[in-house]
Amino acid sequence: MGFKDELKREIRNAMKDVKKEVQKTWRIDYKGHSVEIIHELKKECLIIDGATVDTNKRKSIFSYFVPYSKLSGTIDLEDGVNHTVSVKLGGYISFNCIITIDNVTVLDDALVLDFLPWNHKEKIIPFIERQVQTHNKIVDDGLPDDEYVYDENHPPVAAGSSDHFVDDIPTPFFVKKLLKLFKRQLHHPTNKTRKATYEEIISDNIASYGEEFIERFKQAEWDESLVQQEAIWLLEHAAHREVVKFSITVLGCTNCEKYKELLFTLGMHEEFTLYVLFALKNGTKEANDQIWRLAQSVHGWGKIAAVEKLEATTPEIKQWLLTKGCENIIKNEYFVYMCAIKGDLPAALNPEMISKQLYDGVGLIIQTLLHENVEHDIEDYIFEKAILYRFLDHARIHCQTLEDFYPLMKICKYINADEIWGERSNDCRRQQERNSIQKAIQPIINNPKWSQLAMDTLQQDIDVKALEVAHFYQLDIVPNLFKMLEKHPTNSEIYFSIMNTNHRQHIIDLCVFAENHLSLSSPSKEEEHCLRYIVQDLHEHAGVGLPLVQAALESDTELMQYQALSVLEEWTPSIWQRPSILAAIKNISTTTKDKYYRKLANQLLSKSLD
In the structure, what pLDDT confidence band is assigned to residue 15 with cuts at 50, 70 and 90? Predict the structure, then answer.
């Protein structure tokens, strides 16, 4: 994101704070009648007995240079006289509300505008504690400050993920300044000093300066009781996630044994798990028990961080790592590799018999580690420990269902991939193991049971693994897929499977179906996914699905626009030279922020003129 966008974002967030600070309601009862004044950033209302009698609307905040605004109305006391209500709002130093009725002041109130960054916002700690107390887990991984963190340039991401991708180059002298402000806060804990620290904390991400901060903080050797007092104060008042992370980190630099349960509760929210792990490991005794508890309570980036810190000190922990620990909503190869290493996977596969639960866990580990982007040392581990061969031995007992067979199919595809093994033709030991695995797996693969199970499953409903098994056996499932589309017209997996055939007539039929069943002018998220799966693979099929390409060009999603532009780049201009498509391309060339997309659009426009 550029400087201008970042500046706009800061201004927008500042305006949100101002809006919340100045929002105020005054109510009085006058001889049985209700008088209410509502003040908002750009509007003020006088409401008498539930009816709005006067309103002042401000076009911009610059109207506040005129210090006072006035509202007026009347009250009917049923005495034959209209009693005048006058309201005066504003002021230079404080914001005043003065209400007079028949020139007699009935309310004179002054609102002091402190603009404290934690005021008028939902606090994060109670938000988390309520969920844990009610559900014993986090059910909503959003946070009260989401409106300040996410916008059109910062779409929402999984809790805890942003800290893994933040710029790790700290702002020069930032830590030195922050420590100076916090020291001042420790010795003079007032709203002024706390505000200064708080505002400095939220101006940067602790993920970028954390290591330096911890090192310098330890060197400072401040009074631990004062440090904890102010860290807890910040935690209790925190309405921004960076303040929570900062406070947890500070507590972790002290003996924080008495705050262990509070830290554990905060760690159940994956935005803070990483920081809680530091605090537990650095500032408490017997932290491994708490870390294991935490690892069992999270399911995304927090789980990855917890498994990394967890010490597999007992057979129970090792068993958990190989069965439940490797289950995660984020299938990260390195994370699963850690589970295998810490759980001692080769030893777990040694017995003649293993449990079905362990078979399932190991199957998940293997299919993740066989991913095409797997690191070299992970691959070495698989072969040096003969993990695949041992797993196949246990498959003879446990492989009963399509789910059980799925990792075996992955092993077969991997072990027979000539593009992978051609590079290792000189590695005799590795080739010998490959041959042994091929020989062991082939009888299982040759069993017609699996292709039949896949077809039977797809007769009933869409199933991703059944689809993959059907493709593996080169079964003609296209008729089944089109039948499923009638039931599930926005299931993107079906679109992907049909496009994967690369069969021109199938793709033509799919495009016709999409044109008739999807809302091309305003597609839902599910429909967008379906469109993307079609458009991204139309390069070799000139002229097919032109209305879908146009819909992608006209969408608000830049990725879809790019996919459509790249398709048109492969097609001859005579196919797509239509006024509506040229207009869509021209719109992209003038509105997109991406220079490459803009360049591509302009090239297409130039082609159309040749």
Answer: low
